[in-house]
């Protein structure tokens, strides 16, 4: 990160497998790696702002569900360690499988109440899961609505950007079509 004096300072980052001393090849919960419950517990034990980071983690899990992001495993969530300050790192390595499929057969990397099939989850499942994540169930319901309401517009804007439009890929059109169907059918 760049400091106020213009100098760069390195901030140490550990992914959740590193932080939990789990071998990196066990990054998926279904393969014995850390799940959302374990990571939420770690956040509460270590974060300098545990409530805020728990909400950010819950937001990330919801985003992966709404986008059918099937690669949101423990190595794609990290802690930033800067002196005594420990925080959940910004998200990275985000993707959506909806560019390739309609999502009905896809599993999430972390289960919700022990269930991995993305299409089998509902807002009520998430509300029940909220206590496991140590966030308010009503807040999580509202977060799901907030994200789903903005998702299609955000994706449409992104696909029209010069960086994406220049590829003229069928995957982009599929992503928009499948995301719209996913959200409408949805899970919601």
What would the average pLDDT be, to the nearest integer? 92
Q: What is the top-level CATH class?
A: Mainly Alpha
The tally of beta strands, per DSSP, is 5
Query: What amount of the residues lies in strands?
Result: 5-15%
CATH architecture: Orthogonal Bundle
**Cα Rg:** 17 Å
Query: How would a crystallographer describe the biggest sheet?
Result: 3 strands, antiparallel
Strand order of the largest sheet: 1-2-3
Low-confidence stretches: none
Share of helical residues: 40-55%
CATH topology: Phosphatidylinositol 3-kinase Catalytic Subunit, Chain A, Domain 5
Structural class: mainly alpha
Tally of helical runs: 7
End-to-end C-alpha gap: 38 Å
The shape is: globular
Order of helices and strands: EHHHEEEEHHHH
Domains (count): 1
Q: Topology, pairings included?
A:
Blueprint: E1 12-15, H1 16-19, H2 36-46, H3 50-66, E2 78-82, E3 85-88, E4 107-112, E5 115-117, H4 123-133, H5 137-160, H6 162-165, H7 170-187
Antiparallel strand pairs: 1-2, 2-3, 4-5
Helix pairs in contact: 2-3, 3-5, 4-5, 5-7
């Amino acid at each position: 990160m760049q400091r106020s004096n213009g100098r760069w300072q390195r901030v140490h980052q550990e992914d959740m497998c590193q932080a939990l001393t789990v071998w990196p090849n066990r990054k998926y919960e279904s393969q014995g790696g850390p799940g959302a419950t374990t990571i939420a517990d770690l956040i509460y034990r270590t974060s300098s702002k545990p409530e805020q980071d728990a909400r950010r983690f819950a937001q990330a899990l919801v985003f992966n569900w709404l986008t059918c992001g099937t690669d949101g495993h423990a190595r794609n969530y990290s802690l930033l360690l800067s002196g005594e300050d420990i925080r959940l790192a910004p998200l990275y390595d985000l993707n959506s499988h909806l560019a390739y499929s309609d999502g009905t057969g896809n599993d999430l990397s972390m289960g919700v109440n022990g269930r991995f099939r993305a299409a089998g989850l509902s807002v009520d499942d998430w509300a029940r899961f909220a206590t496991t994540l140590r966030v308010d169930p009503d807040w999580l319901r509202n977060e799901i609505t907030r994200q789903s309401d903005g998702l299609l517009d955000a994706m449409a804007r992104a696909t029209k950007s010069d960086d994406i439009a220049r590829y003229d890929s069928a995957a982009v059109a599929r992503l928009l079509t499948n995301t719209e169907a996913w959200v409408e059918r949805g899970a919601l």
